């Protein structure tokens, strides 16, 4: 059945609602739900945080005229779940409320769902339509789909560079490159990703905290590559303030919210790290490393998105930023005097 303009408008509303959960639902996907009756919205909701009620539950709860539910049409951005997890199955709830029809943006690739939610609805005699704004839905939940389908986290590379192509001063001396608005944007990006990764040099020279103190949201898991355990224990990464994982070729016991993962020197570094992150249910990682880490991931093609902040400043020398011959520029916008360039694969 072809979808109407009203159907598309309602699903766009559901997608907008889903975005409100960004940074809080991981490792669950972002989901929004809109319930309509006779051409008007009677309820809506979204998945607000991991462990909390799902979008369909919140939408049903928001309906004040419950007697209208059996004549309602439900728009949801992801297939209703069919299994017991932190909450009961949402497909069962829609069956219980005897809704008239359900329109779904994306099917859920999670093996615990994977069509079972739709089957429950259809078995109960509830018609289901799928695929409305499917591309937009996959873009919204690109972290979730990458994790489920490719069995690794979604990888975002980020760096700030000067107009003449440098990201640090001579000998990796930290220098301010981007402006205040870009700094705030970076903290927002950190809040949206599950983990954040730096290499040894960045950790040593910048002594970063890798938190979201400039933006509301949850701090990401801190990841650092320290092959020989050479970083000073007094650095901010080891202050125990948020979960931290160190990837190393040596062995050290976990202490004070800091875990150590011993990798094999005989195998490639980053595939091991990504496999470990998948095992830990980490769905996305923001890489703020220096040129060694960035260039390695670029060379191996182990990235999904690149965000470059380009400042009008000139350094005249220093550590060169990665040199890209990329196509696939998706977005370009200004943040104060800085320009942001976003590339995505596919």
UniProtKB/TrEMBL annotation:
What processes does the entry annotate via GO biological process terms?
A: riboflavin biosynthetic process
Q: Does the keyword Metal-binding apply?
A: yes
Q: Where does Zn(2+) bind?
A: 54, 81, 90
Q: Which UniProt keywords apply?
A: Hydrolase, Metal-binding, Multifunctional enzyme, NADP, Oxidoreductase, Riboflavin biosynthesis, Zinc
Active-site residues, as the UniProt record annotates them:
56
Which pathway? Cofactor biosynthesis; riboflavin biosynthesis; 5-amino-6-(D-ribitylamino)uracil from GTP: step 2/4; Cofactor biosynthesis; riboflavin biosynthesis; 5-amino-6-(D-ribitylamino)uracil from GTP: step 3/4
Which prosthetic group or cofactor does it need?
A: Zn(2+)
Q: Which SUPFAM superfamilies match?
A: Cytidine deaminase-like (SSF53927), Dihydrofolate reductase-like (SSF53597)
The catalysed reaction is:
2,5-diamino-6-hydroxy-4-(5-phosphoribosylamino)-pyrimidine + H2O + H(+) = 5-amino-6-(5-phospho-D-ribosylamino)uracil + NH4(+); 5-amino-6-(5-phospho-D-ribitylamino)uracil + NADP(+) = 5-amino-6-(5-phospho-D-ribosylamino)uracil + NADPH + H(+)
Q: Which residues bind NADP(+)?
A: 160, 202, 290-296
- What molecular function terms (GO) are annotated for this protein? 5-amino-6-(5-phosphoribosylamino)uracil reductase activity; diaminohydroxyphosphoribosylaminopyrimidine deaminase activity; zinc ion binding
Asked if the Swiss-Prot or TrEMBL record annotates the protein with the keyword NADP, the reply is yes
The residues that hold substrate are 190, 206, 210, 213, 288
Q: Bound how, and how many: what does the cofactor note say?
A: Binds 1 zinc ion.
Q: What is its EC number?
A: 3.5.4.26, 1.1.1.193
Where does the record place the CMP/dCMP-type deaminase domain? Answer: 5-129
Which family does the record assign?
In the C-terminal section; belongs to the HTP reductase family.
So what does this one do? Converts 2,5-diamino-6-(ribosylamino)-4(3h)-pyrimidinone 5'-phosphate into 5-amino-6-(ribosylamino)-2,4(1h,3h)-pyrimidinedione 5'-phosphate.
Q: What is this protein called?
A: Riboflavin biosynthesis protein RibD
């Amino acid at each position: 059945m072809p979808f109407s303009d009203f159907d598309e408008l309602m699903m766009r509303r559901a997608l907008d609602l889903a975005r409100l959960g960004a940074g809080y639902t991981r490792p669950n996907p972002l989901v929004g739900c809109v319930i309509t009756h006779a051409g008007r919205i009677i309820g809506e909701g979204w998945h607000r945080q991991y462990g909390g009620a799902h979008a369909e539950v919140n939408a049903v709860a928001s309906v004040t005229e419950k007697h209208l539910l059996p004549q309602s049409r439900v728009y949801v951005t992801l297939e209703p779940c069919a299994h017991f997890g932190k909450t009961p199955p949402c497909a069962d709830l829609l069956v219980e409320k005897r809704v008239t029809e359900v329109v779904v943006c994306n099917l859920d690739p999670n093996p615990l769902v994977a069509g079972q939610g739709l089957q429950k609805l259809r078995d109960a005699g509830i018609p289901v339509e799928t695929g409305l704004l499917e591309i937009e839905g996959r873009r919204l939940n690109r972290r979730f789909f990458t994790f489920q389908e490719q069995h690794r986290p979604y990888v975002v590379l980020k760096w700030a560079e000067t107009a003449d192509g440098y990201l640090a001063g001579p000998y990796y001396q930290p220098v301010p490159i981007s402006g205040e608005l870009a700094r705030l944007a970076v903290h927002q990006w950190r809040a949206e990703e599950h983990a954040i990764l730096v290499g040894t040099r960045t950790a040593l020279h910048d002594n970063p905290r890798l938190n979201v103190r400039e933006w509301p949201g949850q701090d990401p898991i801190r990841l650092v590559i320290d092959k020989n355990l050479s970083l000073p224990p007094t650095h901010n990464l080891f202050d125990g303030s948020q979960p931290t994982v160190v990837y190393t070729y040596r062995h050290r016991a976990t202490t004070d919210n800091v875990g150590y993962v011993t990798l094999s020197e005989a195998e490639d570094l980053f595939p091991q790290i990504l496999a470990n992150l998948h095992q830990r249910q980490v769905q996305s990682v923001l890489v703020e490393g220096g040129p060694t880490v960035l260039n390695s991931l670029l060379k191996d093609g182990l990235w999904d998105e690149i965000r470059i902040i380009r400042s009008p400043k000139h350094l005249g020398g220093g550590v060169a930023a990665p040199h890209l011959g990329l196509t696939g520029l998706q977005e370009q916008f200004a943040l104060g005097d800085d320009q942001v360039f976003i590339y995505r694969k596919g």
